[in-house]
């Protein structure tokens, strides 16, 4: 159960980071939810997406190792 939650958090962070960076690069403002609470620069969104990838991969590999 813990590994599934870690993987979900990673996927959410990845999506929010990618939406924010994509909105800044290809639109007028960031997409997603994070821009409603914080003003994050494009590089910050890319770091959030990279951290999301790392956490999602860690959670997914832990789920597979357990099975």
Write a structural description.
The chain is mainly α. Helices cover 75% and strands 0% of the residues. It contains two helices and no strands. The protein has helices at residues 2-26, 42-66. α1 packs antiparallel against α2 (42-66). It is elongated and about 45 Å long. The model has no long low-confidence stretch (mean pLDDT 89).
Short summary of the structure?
With 67 residues, the protein is an all-alpha fold. Helices cover 75% and strands 0% of the residues.
Radius of gyration (CA) equals 13 Å
**Total number of β-strand segments?**
0
User: What multimeric state do the chains show?
Assistant: single chain
Number of helices: 2
What would the average pLDDT be, to the nearest integer?
Answer: 89
- Helix share bin: over 70%
Could you say which structural class the secondary elements and strand pairing correspond to? mainly alpha
| Largest sheet: number of strands, sense, barrel closure | none
Uncertain residue segments: none
What is the end-to-end distance?
Answer: 12 Å
Tell me, what's the shape? elongated
Encode the helix/strand succession as letters. HH
**Proportion in β-strands:** under 5%
């Amino acid at each position: 159960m813990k590994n599934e939650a870690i993987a979900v958090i990673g996927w959410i962070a990845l999506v929010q980071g990618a939406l924010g960076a994509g909105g800044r690069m290809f639109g007028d403002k960031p997409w997603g939810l994070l821009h409603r609470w914080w003003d994050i620069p494009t590089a910050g969104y890319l770091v959030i997406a990279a951290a999301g990838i790392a956490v999602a991969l860690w959670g997914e590999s832990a789920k597979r190792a357990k099975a």
